[in-house]
């Protein structure tokens, strides 16, 4: 007798959720990015008990039709790409069509959404991949998605969530990353009904001080360079603002937060003797690279990425940072190669 069976959608989604949804902060990231992709200008994030009981994002973006609202929870359902060639020209945060399906497989989700042109909005309630309610409702333009009781049906995962302060720290990190990438969008964060952060739309320098650390105010050195392969903009901290603790180092490639030890090394290398050993320079740097020359499809969370011209980007970045902090003037003797 044959033994192989196709898994049900609910189980397949739950397995996929294992990769995309590791903790409340992963949900925060996916929801905020969806709102950004929907063109929202005002975002509200409401969490309770560090996201363990509630993670809600309310946006004023495009909203969805009733059919799209239902479709958005299907796995591999996306409005962002259509054919495989689109994978090489990604300009949105999302494209895998997996997040909402994964989240709905491991939580109780309530979505309210309305497009500007529609008179009534749509309400959908879905629990463990099962739609339990769909209705027409009065709703503001945009989308509100409330994710309740994450991992309610996966006790093993719920048990492994960390303490509230730790989970909240991860949430704030994701919130800060998205907020830094989009200074022109306003963000508010509430935790247990208390306003934790309120970031009005602003220029990048103000967003940095609002979202990260007020003391960076007079410490930001502008970084700007444009070549054929990469355009770099943003700020690095002046050498004297380097901290003993790590954490305020941000790279965004086409507005997507990424981690790269290789590029980090380029920045640190540019600072060389300008900062004391064991201290970490601040940076928020935006790299614009033609989507054809990067591959963001390495990992579901999309924080790792592959560059075609890695070495060239390293060199451009290093010299851009050197220029902006004036290392050339500070230590001309060790810069023979410059
Ligand atoms: P992806 O973002 O990779 O497309 P998701 O599962 O995150 O996949 O979302 C599925 C689809 O639902 C999106 O492609 C988009 O069309 C729609 N969607 C999700 N969130 C929103 C939102 N906040 N506003 C408008 N549309 C949304
Ligand atoms: Mg998405």
Helix content: 25-40%
Number of DSSP E strands: 15
Beta-strand fraction estimate: 25-35%
Number of helices: 10
Shape: globular
What's the domain count? 2
Rg estimate, integer Å: 22 Å
The CATH architecture classification of the largest domain is 2-Layer Sandwich
- Strand arrangement within the widest β-sheet reads 5-4-3-6-2-1-7-8
Derived structural class: alpha+beta
The succession of helices and strands, N to C, reads HHEEHHEEEEHHEEHEEEEHEEEHH
Q: What is the makeup of the main sheet?
A: 8 strands, mixed
- Mean of pLDDT: 92
CATH class type of the largest domain = Alpha Beta
Ions, cofactors, ligands: which are bound? adenosine-5'-diphosphate, magnesium ion
- N- to C-terminal distance: 71 Å
Low confidence ranges: 328-338
Say what the CATH topology of the largest domain is: Heat Shock Protein 90
Family: Belongs to the DNA mismatch repair MutL/HexB family.
Domain DNA mismatch repair protein S5: 208-326
GO molecular function, one term: mismatched DNA binding
GO biological process, one term: mismatch repair
Topology:
Layout: H1 9-20, H2 24-37, E1 42-48, E2 54-59, H3 66-71, H4 99-105, E3 108-114, E4 121-127, E5 130-137, E6 142-148, H5 155-159, H6 164-181, E7 186-191, E8 194-199, H7 204-211, E9 220-226, E10 231-237, E11 249-253, E12 256-258, H8 261-271, E13 283-288, E14 294-295, E15 306-307, H9 310-325, H10 327-330
Parallel strand pairs: 1-7, 11-13
Antiparallel strand pairs: 1-2, 2-6, 3-4, 3-6, 4-5, 7-8, 9-10, 10-13, 11-12, 14-15
Helix pairs in contact: 1-4, 2-6, 8-9
Adenosine-5'-diphosphate is lined by residues 30, 34-35, 38, 59, 61-64, 72, 77-80, 94-101, 143.
Family: Belongs to the DNA mismatch repair MutL/HexB family.
Keywords: DNA damage, DNA repair
Protein name: DNA mismatch repair protein MutL
């Amino acid at each position: 007798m044959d033994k192989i069976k196709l898994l049900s959608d609910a189980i397949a989604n739950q397995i996929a959720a294992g990769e995309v949804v590791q903790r409340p902060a992963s949900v925060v990231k996916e929801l905020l990015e969806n709102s950004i992709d929907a063109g929202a200008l005002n975002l509200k994030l409401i969490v309770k008990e560090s996201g363990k009981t509630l993670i809600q994002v309310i946006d004023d973006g495009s909203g969805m039709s009733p059919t799209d609202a239902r479709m958005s929870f299907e796995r591999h359902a996306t409005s962002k790409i259509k054919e495989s060639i689109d994978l090489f020209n990604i300009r949105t945060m999302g494209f895998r069509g997996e997040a909402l399906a994964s989240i709905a497989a491991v939580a109780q989700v309530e979505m309210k959404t309305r497009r500007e042109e529609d008179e009534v909005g749509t309400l959908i309630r879905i629990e463990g991949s099962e739609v339990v309610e769909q209705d027409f409702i009065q709703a503001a333009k945009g989308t509100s998605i409330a994710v309740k009781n994450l991992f309610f049906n996966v006790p093993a995962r719920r048990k492994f969530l960390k303490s509230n302060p730790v989970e909240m720290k991860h949430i704030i990190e994701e919130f800060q990353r998205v907020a830094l990438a989009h200074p022109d969008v306003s963000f508010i964060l509430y935790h247990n009904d208390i306003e934790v952060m309120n970031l009005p739309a602003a220029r990048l320098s103000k967003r940095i001080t609002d979202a990260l650390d007020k003391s960076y105010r007079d410490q930001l050195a502008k970084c700007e360079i444009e070549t054929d392969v990469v355009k770099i903009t943003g700020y690095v901290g002046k050498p004297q603002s380097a901290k003993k603790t790590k954490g305020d180092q941000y790279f965004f490639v086409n507005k997507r937060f990424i981690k790269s030890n290789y590029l980090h090394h380029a920045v640190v290398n540019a600072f060389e003797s300008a900062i004391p050993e064991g201290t970490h320079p601040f940076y928020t740097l935006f790299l614009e690279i033609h989507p054809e020359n990067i591959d963001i499809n390495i990992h579901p969370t999309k924080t790792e990425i592959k560059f075609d011209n890695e070495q060239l980007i390293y060199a451009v970045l290093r010299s851009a940072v050197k220029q902006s902090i004036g290392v050339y003037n500070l230590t001309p003797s060790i810069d023979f190669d410059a």
